[in-house]
User: Fold this.
Amino acid sequence: MSYGNTSFRQFWVIISFIGATFAQPDLRFHPFDFVQYRKPGQVNSISFSDQYAYIGTHHGGVQRFNIFSNRFEEPITRAQGLKSNSITAVHRATNGVLWVATPFGVEHSYDEAGNWRFMANNHFGFFSNQFVERIGESNNYIWLDLGSEVRRIDPLTGVQLGIMPNPDEPVQWSSGLARFHIDLSNELIEYSITDGWMTDLHSLFNPDGRQMRLTTYARNRMGELWIGTEDGTFFRGDPTMKTFTPYHFGLGQVDIQSIGGKDSFWIGGLLNSQTDGITCFDSDREISDIYVFEDRINMDPISIFSILELKKEVWFGGEDGILVYHKKKEYWRNYGLSLGGGKNWVTDMIEVDGQVWIGSPNGLALLNIKDKQQVDHELINQFNNVYIHDLTFSNNLIFIGTETGLFIFDTKNQKLYDGESFGYKPKEFIYPVRHDDYTAITQDKGNIYIANRSSILKFNLRNRQWSNAVDASIYGGIDVKAMAVDKNTIFISTVNGITKYEMKKHLMDIYNYPFIGQVNDMYIHGRKIWMGTSEGLTSYRYK
Assistant:
């Protein structure tokens, strides 16, 4: 069926504008003010512009790979307004419009980044089990391939203009997910593969020996063959040098619980599948290295709840134990911990004078950094079976946020203080009504910030004076999951989203967009705040 009548087509244009919706998190933001990074999953589709290769992934949105610089740039995800991070097909049209298909419908953007125009599957009359498998274009139309039939689409408005078994004119398709086995043996036998990858001419094997199924392939205008695989790795083929070079970008886990490190981030979270791992993420160069649990010796798969980077090692706190990575020797080691009875995990870790202090729901533990042996300390008995939420060490003081209150340990005189009896309190200072459940502690430029449901307190390390930083009404008087501070700006994470509060100007913004999810950890680096969330790693350029 084909619609050729001009007036009929104009009618459908009007209906399309009524039925379609524009997807963008907030008109105040530029398309990449918020950026989301996820575990990519398999590569489902590949398309090209003169500058980018657009890689449609199963879980990580559309990855943008700069063809000239050979590096990744910010991906296109729900943070830019897509309805889903699961991409079934992607196509960059010659008129500059980027088309993306998800299980919910088809979207297109005129600037190839934001301002997405969304048309749901029922807008096209798809059956419940139908979705777009690949997208292409002819001289005058965009084409959607559903496997059993094709739909002809207006290239500017997205109005459906025809339904037929096969295109009635030549179509240039972008790649889609292969239904059957991909036979590239003729190309693979002529090419060598770099970075330790191998092939048996039917599939590929990564440097750790894991077999990877080929999921899609495409050729660009330069005659390069690009191949996608089931773990999110794709290969760029050089027809002159006869080499395939692998590229992979994304996280080892989706539900991020902790961010650690300084120049590069170490990222860990909850286990979701057998191929989970720990990620080392270089935010400046958009590079990630994933350490997959199954591929590493002495690296048992565990959920990661806290991370501590030391001079020579990185410690990862999990359930009833820790993982330690030696940076120079590049090896992993598991160490068990005695943290009390019942289900237990490492809530936080700090380094203090050659020892690592470890918080858990059942109290404190101390480990010697050199031999990883547990150290006896008088505080262990005092905090036995007490939930330790957070730990911070600065200026010889250890701040301990617990379910029963705030405590401060002076490492110089080895004395423990109750938070209420420590430091100096001016007349205007109001101590929180609730004296328990101090769930989050952070520091910035000589100040410590401590939160419970009643208030966020500020402690000046230089003069040891307390002040009230944030009233509970700003964040709803509920548990604070995490905080991050930059001068007079504080970010507060609760179950209701992120609150950004300017403490001097008393200005507040709330970010509770669905793509962010639950924020478990926050870290400020440069002009961005980085958030470890239930939906992955999200950055926000706030200045």
